[in-house]
Every structure is written in structure tokens, then in C-alpha cells.
């Protein structure tokens, strides 16, 4: 998935757009500490409701990176942060999040072809996320 913003960004303020770009770059980038900070903020920020569809769009990119367990894991971490953010009402986006998480839990991932890849850890994490969505 890219950190490119979906086309309907005209309704977002510059600050929200910058936040979205910084968070997606941080989570999908190479700096683990920056990723941790971004995910923590995504989980607690009370002012990002307008960005929910954009972050859900990023998470929906799981199929395009099914060969990369690291990227899949990062996308699931975004989903977890969104699910755990008490200020977000997931509403109609729950279906998309469930679909992305289910994909990671159940689909034959391209990354699982290599026996050295521990795709079971990713699948366990996805299953745990599903339990958080439903309970």
C-alpha cells in the first residue's frame, strides 16, 4: 500500500492531510521508534475522525502486499490502533476492517510459500484483532 491519499481530499484541512501523510510514512517506513509513536498517537488522537476512511483505505491494501509479512503486520497494527481509539466510531468502516483482518487470518498468503516466513504469528495477531472487533 502506498501512503498516497485517496482522491477525495478536498474536505480535509492541511493539518489533517499532513498528519495522515506523516502517520502512514512512519508506520510503513523503516524507523521502528517512529512507527511506535505514530501507532500510539493513532490509538489516542481525538481529532482524526475525518481521516478514518483514509486509514481504512490504507489497511485495505493487505491484498497488494500478501507477499510481505512485515507490511501486513504494519497494516494490522494500523487496524488495531483504529479499533482501540475510543474517540473513533468505526460504524460503516467495520466491514472493511473485518475484511482486511480476515484476509490476513484466513487467506493463503504469498508470504507463506516460503517455509522460513512465520505467517502463523501474523494469523494469530489477525485472529486476536478480530476478537477485539467482535467483543
TrEMBL record:
<dbReference type="GO" id="GO:0051123">
    <property type="term" value="P:RNA polymerase II preinitiation complex assembly"/>
</dbReference>
<dbReference type="GO" id="GO:0016251">
    <property type="term" value="F:RNA polymerase II general transcription initiation factor activity"/>
</dbReference>
<dbReference type="GO" id="GO:0003713">
    <property type="term" value="F:transcription coactivator activity"/>
</dbReference>
<feature type="domain" description="TAF6 C-terminal HEAT repeat">
    <location>
        <begin position="11"/>
        <end position="134"/>
    </location>
</feature>
<dbReference type="InterPro" id="IPR046344">
    <property type="entry name" value="TAF6_C_sf"/>
</dbReference>
<comment type="similarity">
    <text>Belongs to the TAF6 family.</text>
</comment>
<dbReference type="GO" id="GO:0005669">
    <property type="term" value="C:transcription factor TFIID complex"/>
</dbReference>
<keyword id="KW-0804">Transcription</keyword>
<dbReference type="GO" id="GO:0000124">
    <property type="term" value="C:SAGA complex"/>
</dbReference>
<dbReference type="InterPro" id="IPR037796">
    <property type="entry name" value="TAF6"/>
</dbReference>
<dbReference type="GO" id="GO:0046695">
    <property type="term" value="C:SLIK (SAGA-like) complex"/>
</dbReference>
<protein>
    <submittedName>
        <fullName>TAF6L factor</fullName>
    </submittedName>
</protein>
<keyword id="KW-0805">Transcription regulation</keyword>
<dbReference type="Pfam" id="PF07571">
    <property type="entry name" value="TAF6_C"/>
</dbReference>
<keyword id="KW-0539">Nucleus</keyword>
<dbReference type="InterPro" id="IPR011442">
    <property type="entry name" value="TAF6_C"/>
</dbReference>
Amino acid at each position: 500500500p502506498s501512503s498516497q491519499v485517496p482522491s477525495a481530499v478536498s474536505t480535509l484541512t492541511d493539518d489533517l492531510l499532513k498528519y495522515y501523510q506523516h502517520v502512514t510514512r512512519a508506520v510503513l517506513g523503516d524507523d521502528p521508534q517512529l512507527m511506535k509513536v505514530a501507532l500510539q498517537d493513532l490509538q489516542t488522537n481525538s481529532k482524526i475522525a475525518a481521516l478514518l476512511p483514509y486509514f481504512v483505505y490504507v489497511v485495505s491494501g493487505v491484498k497488494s502486499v500478501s507477499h510481505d509479512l512485515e507490511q501486513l503486520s504494519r497494516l494490522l497494527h494500523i487496524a488495531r490502533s483504529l479499533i482501540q481509539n475510543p474517540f473513533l466510531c468505526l460504524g460503516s468502516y467495520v466491514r472493511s476492517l473485518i475484511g482486511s483482518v480476515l484476509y490476513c487470518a484466513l487467506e493463503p498468503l504469498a508470504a507463506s510459500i516460503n517455509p522460513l516466513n512465520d505467517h502463523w504469528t501474523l494469523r494469530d495477531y489477525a485472529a486476536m484483532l478480530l476478537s477485539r472487533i467482535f467483543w
